[in-house]
Amino acid sequence: MRRTARLLTGTALTAAAVGLSTAAPVYAGQDAGGLTVYPSSVVPGEQAVVTTTACGEGGSAAGDAGAVGAGAFPLAPDADDGETTGHFEVPPSAQPGTYEIVATCGAAGRKVTGDLVVTLTPAAERVYPRGSVKTGVGGALGPDPVQTAAGVAALAVAAAGGTWLLHRRARGDGI
Known about the structure:
disordered N terminus, alpha+beta, 2 domains, Immunoglobulin-like
């Protein structure tokens, strides 16, 4: 029984190792044939452009932006770089959120997806936070250098006193 279990476990581990070694690695920044949506963040009423290399050179595709309310749109092959490109307009009634855009390659029938983020503020008008946050904790170079120096002095006195007491105890003088 024990020998059979070892044999089955060894066989399963070998099969798993072979399966892992034959899988092609995908690295960050490598185009895995997905759907690229540009710009990735739009406001309602703007146009979005989608591109993919998944359909092959000269391939066409049918796009579907129904999730955001734009419906179907065609993707045609580019003459320059082997990509398939299409565009659609995000309807003015689109609500903020992340929507999945789908393209189905004509010949292969392969489906690729990409995400489109709908916001209410155009990218040029977005205000990003800057500066510091007032948490009340302060820092090493906080607003009051006198309090910082007093804290450092208190820590130094405590460390020196602790060392002195440990030294006395080690000598046997007691406390």
